[in-house]
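task queued by scheduler; priority normal; single chain, no ligands, no partner chains; default sampling; output format set to structure tokens
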Amino acid sequence: MHSRNQLDPSTTATPAALTRRELLGAGALMGVAPLLAACAATNEHKQIGGGQMKAPQTNRVNVGLDGRPPARNGKENARLLGKLAVSELGAGAMSISSNYGPPAPHEQGIKTLRAAYGKGVRFFDTAEVYGPHTSEELVGEAIAPFRDEIVLATKFGYDIEAGGHNSRPEHIRRVIEGSLNRLRTDRIDLYYQHRVDKNVPIEEVAGTVKDLIKEGKVLHFGLSEASARTIRRAHAVQPVTAVQSEYSIMERSPERNGVLTTCEELGIGFVAWGPVGMGYLTGKMDAQTKLDPKTDFRSGFERFTPENLAANMPFVNVLRRFAEKKNATPAQIALAWLLAQKPWIVPIPGTRSLEHLEENLGATSVQLMPAELQKIEAELARITVHGGRMSAKYMVEVEE
């Protein structure tokens, strides 16, 4: 396992190393301490009686304390996932290493993730199953120089050797050690159960993570693609900081299945994966787009058949119309729309391209006014989504 004291001091951005005990005693990561301090200075975010911190009532938590307008690039704005302060947009690392074509060259992946940090991203998301393992290794190397300035999330729940799910307590305790080593860290800031394991009561899972939190190996607990009922059961044992599920202008299941309502009620943050429709809402795909079934899992999804790529184009057209009005791109409108839904929603678009990274982060400068959001909603109401969001192989893992 790598402790933060093992990082090369010449590349570490923090002035002094702290032990995990000191870190936990301070109550925040150094890199987001200014964000938390600003939140604490705002009445809406005061913690009362040791309970969950209330979600902010505005779209963004302004942490620019010098009176100047925020830079809107993630450096001076934060959002709260429960009590955890993160940048407005996170960096999803999966597509760099797997599932969206062949892995990107190693140096390209490192460069992209470090560029994200340089442009204000302070929230990085990976999982042991991505690769498998190679995504965690890449992220661990990329963030090493600034580990203490970011929020690091990874996931457990798959049995990579035997296949299928495995969230048994002994398995969680074993695989977290591998994740800590690959990520070159001594703690995981946000540790998600990747998919609900039907063979292990969620109370046992939450209890195991609760123990890991007491040990300092984990700071916050998360769930991914879990139902509202499971979220409530887990939260009763160990407060859930964030729930991660697919959510976009085209995939709105969390609005219908009670997950967003439950998160709002319990003070849980929501992390949106697939915020630009797995690439479709960028407007750079059409019926002629070819996906390699050997390396791109989207090739087996109904929405990515040639027929449905064409049939769902009205969604892209809506984004294009509003993008033209706002001097933006379709992807930026898609991300701005998500940011405008709730102040505790944080999209984590993934990319291996510096150009696309710049485009994605530009979404934080796009302001959609209430009247514009209403117009978007009216146009979307007339459009039907064609095709399921994932193949049956993957949907069977999603808890409805």
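post-processing summary
- DSSP finds 16 helices and eleven strands in the chain.
- The radius of gyration is 20 Å.
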